[in-house]
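Appendix B. Raw example, untouched.
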Amino acid sequence: MELHVKRDHSSGGQYPDRARMLISCPDGPGIVAAVSHFLYQHGANIVQSDQYTMDPDGGMFFMRVEFDLPKLDERLDEVRNIFGGVAERFKMDWQIFRVSHKKRLAIFVSKEDHCLVELLWQWQAGDLDADIAMVVSNHTDMQAYVESFGIPFHHIPVTADTKAEAEKRQLEVIGSDIDVIILARYMQIISPSFIEHYRHRIINIHHSFLPAFVGGKPYAQAYQRGVKIIGATAHYVTEELDGGPIIEQDVQRVSHSDDVNELKRIGRTIERVVLARAVKWHIEDRILVHHNKTVVFN
């Protein structure tokens, strides 16, 4: 079942009493009614609601609700505590986020700048409703550009011999208040211990339409295969290389006359758009992860 209620995409700063609820649970009757009735009982007004069920394939139910609740800051802890009873009855995994709380982003980049530039442009234009707390890089190529936006830039070199120390330094720089890490063509493999700190909170852009052409030099691989479409994939990072839950993908047609450099040029445009979409959906709490798949209410 899917239910669509009126939508309002205005930024959180204009709606200090707005919150979002994400729910995953086994499917069954009465879930939507219970959530809606609970919010009604506490004086909340639902402004957007989306649902999806996997039944009969796995029997899982997913829900995203945006609602306005007067004096949200004062009442949110109470509402969370009371909703625990509803959640326990339906065996829910759930979270409630304040829309006015902007997520803090750390962007990792190497030498290629197109994905980073797109994110900075969208952030500067107000289309990315988040705080870019810092940019971390293993090179200094982008330092002056990033700092021109007033954003801190941290240069942390990485070699095969210093990788563990570099990741330790990265975690120190990030601290405890970063909500999501974005790998904007950061050309280093992230270790399992680092991933564990940010499970389903590291977004990578892979310059290929996964699961095809995993790993390095996918455009060269695509050229050798004579493909007729190329694409890009934004996904959460897991221990499996380029194998994490896929958030967004896009493609463009190419022809036999396009060499590797032309494929790269076309691909860069796809990459920047796909990554920006994925980041936007994550910071707007539109993504629910189930095993190695995502449900994206966009």
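End of appendix B.
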